[in-house]
Amino acid sequence: MNTRPLLDYAAALGIVLDNSTRLPAETCAPADAVGRVLAEPVDSAVALPPFDNSAMDGFALGGGDAPVAAGATLEVSGEQAAGDENTLGSGQAWAIMTGARLPDGFDRVIPVEQVHTLATREDGEPARIRLEAAVRPGQNVRLAGSDVAVGERVLAAGTRVQPRHLMLLAALGVASVPVIRRPRVAVLCTGRELVEDASTPLQPGQIRNSNGPFLGAQLTRSGAEVVHAETVDDDEPAFEAALQRALAAGVDAVLTTGAVSMGRYDFVPSVLDRIGAHTLFHKVAIRPGKPLLFARLADGPLLFGLPGNPISGAVGLRFFVEPALRAMTGMGTEIALRLPLAEPLRKKAALRYHLKARVSINARGEQVVRVLDGQESYRIRPLAEANAWVVVEAGIETLAAGDRVAVFGMGHDEAVIAEENTP
Ligand code: AMP
Ligand code: MG
Question: With left for phi above 0 and alpha for psi between -120 and 50, is residue 138 left, alpha or beta?
C-alpha cells in the first residue's frame, strides 16, 4: 500500500498559482468592461462635479464670509437651470435649480422652501424674496472636485468592473479602459455514459451530462471565455483528438472532467504522459475531489483534470480553477467570511473539506451557516439549495455549534447573501 502523504491544499494551490501568469491587456469601452478586470488603475483627468453647482431648487446669493441672516430681503434678477451656461451672476439673488452651475459672484443657495415671496414678476416667478432662515457661505453648494479631484486615483488595477464602476467611468467621460484579456478555456467532458441532448431518451446505464453545462456557465460567470467544449467517449484516441482541437482553439487552460481516478477507463493521466504534458500533481488531500490532476501542456496551457463526480468537479473549479483565473487576470486572493456554524460537524482530520452550505439570517439579523445534508459527491440537489461553500481545513476533526468556519461564495466573485430567514 502506498503510504506517501497526500499533497495538502495549500501546497497544491501554490503550484497552480505559480503556473498561472497574468494575461496581456487590451482596451475596451467601459460598458464592455463590465465583468472584466482592470489591467491598470484609472486616474481621473477631470474634476467631479466639474463646476460648483446647486444641491437644491432655490435661490443663489452671495454675502462674503458671514451668513446672510434670516429676515433679509433680496431682489431676484436672474435664473439658472441645469444646463444653462451663464458664468457670471449679477444683482442680489438668482433663482437656481438643482445641478445648475452656480454663477460666479454667488456662493450659497437657500432652498425654495425657506423663502417667502414678497413680489412676483409678470410671469408669476419671484421678483423679491425674504429669507426664512440664515444661509452660510457654501451652504447647499456642491463644490467642483468635491467628489473626485483632478488626478485622483479612482479605480485600482485588479478591480473587476461592475455597473457601479461604470457610473463613475461614465461621469468622468472615460472612453476606453485597459482590461486583461479574458482567460480562454476549453471544457472536455469524458464518459461513454453521458448523453448531451435533453430530448434523447436515456438507454440503460446512461446519464445526462450535468458537469458540462455547469462548468460552462460558472466559468463564464467567473470571467473566463469558454472557447471550446465537447464530450468524448472513454476512448484514449478520441480524448487525445479532442484535446488537440481544444489546443487549436488557442486556450489558456483546458478543463477535463472524469477519467482521473483509479478505474479501468481513467486514461487522462496516461494520455497526458504520452503527449509530453508535465503533470505537476495528481491527488490532493481534499474532500470531495481528491483525484484532481494539474498539468502544464507542452506548448503552455494549463490542464485541470477534474474528477467526474459533479460535486468533486465543482470543488475543483471553485478552489483551484477560479484562483487560477484570478491570478491570470491580476485579481488579489480571496478572503473567506467567517460565520458561526448552526450545527456541530465531524470530519476526517486528514482532509480539507468543502461543504455545500446555506447561509441564512437569524432572528437577531446575524448570518449563520448550515452545512446541508447530502455531502456525497454525486449528490447535486443540495448544491442547487446551497448559496455558499463551507471550508474546514485538514487537522480539524470536530466543530461545535457556534464555532466559526470559513465561508466562500458559490463563485469567486459572488458575495454570500442570505435570501431568507432561518426558519
Ligand atoms: P469518473 O471520474 O469518470 O470515474 O466519473 C465519476 C462519476 O461521475 C461517475 O458516476 C460518472 O458517471 C459521473 N460523471 C462523470 N462525468 C459526468 C458528467 N459530465 N456529468 C455528470 N456525471 C458525470
Ligand atoms: Mg468516467
Answer: left
